DNA sequence: TTGAAAGCGCTAACAC
DNA sequence: GTGTTAGCGCTTTCAA
């Protein structure tokens, strides 16, 4: 278990000061006007000794850890793990490494993660904020910590954010169902004030309104994050069996959609004949459902790339803490939406 | 943008040395015999100033960063992101945070990630090794870095590892098909020497042999990690259409399985009548396939928990670098395997 | 019971 | 061109 070699080891081996070694190994020999042969010698010894810089020490000194913190709702959700993958790649391209954590949509977890990451001196944060995290975010702003919100924004707060055009996506999705002849279109969404959900709901409502469909309140079902499956079963029983009045549904996320499809499958509802379906997000499941599911495809690559880009801009420039990127969302039409 | 408060700030505010503050805030007032009222005062001021320790500085000094590095093949693969979630939780329970990276089954990426993480002074690594990474792993051992291999081991190398009982799982899966009357059972596996795949192949072969089924060589298809879909289409065309001789398949991973199911769906093969299927791993897709897929369920919780446990043991004790945990795998029987 | 100070590995201002 | 040195924030030994 040989100790790691430090600048000092190289310096003493070559017979120079650590300063010179530092300059050379950081490519600053020009600025520091280090002799050419000296530089060569230092590099040679560094290689011989297989020198690896201690990034912790570097970070302490420079105040830059070249580390980003990624806080998602749940890394095991394919939506977030796909983003994580893209973020990882973009970060690496820029010399950054990524710490991750899952908030589980919980305020306390979110706070702890932010805190932990800040204590580890991350250079910036990519956050999918949870409901009620307004204070936490405000606090970051006050402290001047670079961050970017992803997937969702917070009401009444100007921050860096990268989101999709949820309003229009939901509007178009609902409209598609309307155009295809469905009359009573429900939506199942999460019960949260987070903007992504609010915008999806608004887009949905707007489309109904434009088509002069009433009873919107009854058609919009809100479910909590916990005990999702039970709530969805309940909701679908009501919508499809008991009150037998709806003929289409918009699912506001992939998690809602997948749970719902299980129930619909089980109830042997005919899609799209008896029930039209459009869902947000993507899933392999959508391909395998007996009626391939029409969905709103988020451009994950664009979201992840932009999140990193916006964050790095903020890291490199205090002032750039207010960039809002809205990515258009496509709708992929397949069988489940009818016609 | 108020600067972070340091021990020094508290010290000067209280009028004591940083040493005292450090003791108190680390709960070492007993050992250091700090006065009770002094301790209270320090704690009070720390709270007032909202002191947050700089973990980078702590890490530099102590040599312990309380950070783990997680290297998986691909974080966007649900198998690995599920593990990541569990590892994250276990790590947090023990005061650790997790850096992650995806190797993409590439040797160079793997090397870079290990290097990057070591330079960041992680206390230990959880690695799903890629093919040919023997040297990299050996190097870690030589340096005395705590690590644990997960999901796969390396041939002829004693290390910490947490794997499932792939041999018996594959044996049982194949046997199930045999018992259910299938005669020509193929396997599609990855073309790699990594032990998890080798063991799955051995278990499969053994079951065939025990049942006196010949032609094993022809029935075992190996695919590369790249251009998976094309290879699988090709393979299935051969197995199912051209040579029309097989009546069952064992899929060696979820990724192979999902791609294959798409093709099988498309070819309108009747499962389980014309083709029996068993797959390794889990997927939502298995529930939605028209014939729910029988699968070998890995106990993700056990794998993740044990990986962290074994790693932490090694971190706390140099000698414990040789723990091998084999987790039994259950088989979840549904329709696709027949009878 | 408390303080002074060294030092973890590195950078960079400054001196020579 | 090259070396000295202070210091990033923290822990811990030793002295008082």
Topology:
The structure is a homodimer of 339-residue chains.
Chain A: H1 7-14, H2 18-25, H3 36-48, H4 55-62, E1 67-72, H5 78-93, E2 97-102, H6 107-119, E3 124-127, H7 134-143, E4 147-150, E5 161-164, H8 166-179, E6 185-190, H9 195-210, H10 216-219, E7 220-223, H11 228-242, E8 248-251, H12 254-266, E9 276-280, H13 284-288, E10 294-297, H14 300-316, E11 324-327, E12 330-332
Parallel strand pairs in A: 1-2, 1-3, 3-4, 4-5, 5-11, 6-7, 6-8, 8-9, 9-10
Antiparallel strand pairs in A: 10-12
Chain A binds a DNA duplex (16 and 16 nucleotides) through residues 4, 6-8, 16-20, 22-23, 26, 28, 32-35, 38, 53-54, 56-63.
What would your notes on this structure say?
- The structure is a homodimer of 339-residue chains.
- With 339 residues, chain A is of the alpha/beta class.
- Chain A is built from 14 helices and twelve strands.
- In chain A, the strands form two sheets. In chain A, strands 2-1-3-4-5-11 form a six-stranded parallel sheet, with helices on both faces. In chain A, strands 7-6-8-9-10-12 form a six-stranded mixed sheet, sandwiched between helices.
- In chain A, strand 9, helix 13 and strand 10 form a beta-alpha-beta unit.
- In chain A, helix 1 packs across helix 3, helix 5 packs across helix 14 and helix 8 packs parallel to helix 9.
- Chain A is elongated and about 85 Å long.
- The mean pLDDT of chain A is 94.
- Chain A binds a DNA duplex (16 and 16 nucleotides) through helix 2 and helix 4.
């Amino acid at each position: 278990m040989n100790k790691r070699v430090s600048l000092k080891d190289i310096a003493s081996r070559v017979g120079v000061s650590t300063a010179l070694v530092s300059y050379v190994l950081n490519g600053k020999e020009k600025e520091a006007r280090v002799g050419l042969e000296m530089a060569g010698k230092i590099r040679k010894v560094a290689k011989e000794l297989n020198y690896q810089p201690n990034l912790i020490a570097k970070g302490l000194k420079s105040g830059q850890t070249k580390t980003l913190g990624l806080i998602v709702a749940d890394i095991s959700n394919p939506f977030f793990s796909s983003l994580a993958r893209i973020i990882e790649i973009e970060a690496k391209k820029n010399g950054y490494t990524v710490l991750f954590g899952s908030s589980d949509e919980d305020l306390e977890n979110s706070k702890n993660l932010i805190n932990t990451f800040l204590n580890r001196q991350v250079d910036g944060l990519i956050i999918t904020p949870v409901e009620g995290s307004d204070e936490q975010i405000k606090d970051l702003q006050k402290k001047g910590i670079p961050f970017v919100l992803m997937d969702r924004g917070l009401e009444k707060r100007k921050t860096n954010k990268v989101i999709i055009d949820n309003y229009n996506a939901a509007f178009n999705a609902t409209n598609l169902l309307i155009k295809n002849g469905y009359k009573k279109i429900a939506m199942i969404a999460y019960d949260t004030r987070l903007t992504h959900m609010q915008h999806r709901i608004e887009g949905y409502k707007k489309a109904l309104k434009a088509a002069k469909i009433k009873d919107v309140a009854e058609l919009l079902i809100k479910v909590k994050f916990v005990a999702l499956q039970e709530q969805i079963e309940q909701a679908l029983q009501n919508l499809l069996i008991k009150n037998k009045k709806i003929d289409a549904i918009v699912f506001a996320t992939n998690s809602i959609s997948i749970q719902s499809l299980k129930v619909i499958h089980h109830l042997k509802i005919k899609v799209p004949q008896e029930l039209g379906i459009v869902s947000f997000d993507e899933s392999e499941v959508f391909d395998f459902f007996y009626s391939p599911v029409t969905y709103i495809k988020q451009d994950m690559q664009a979201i992840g790339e932009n999140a990193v880009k916006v964050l790095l801009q903020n890291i490199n420039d205090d002032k750039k803490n207010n960039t809002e990127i809205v990515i258009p969302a496509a709708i992929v039409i397949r069988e489940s939406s009818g016609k």
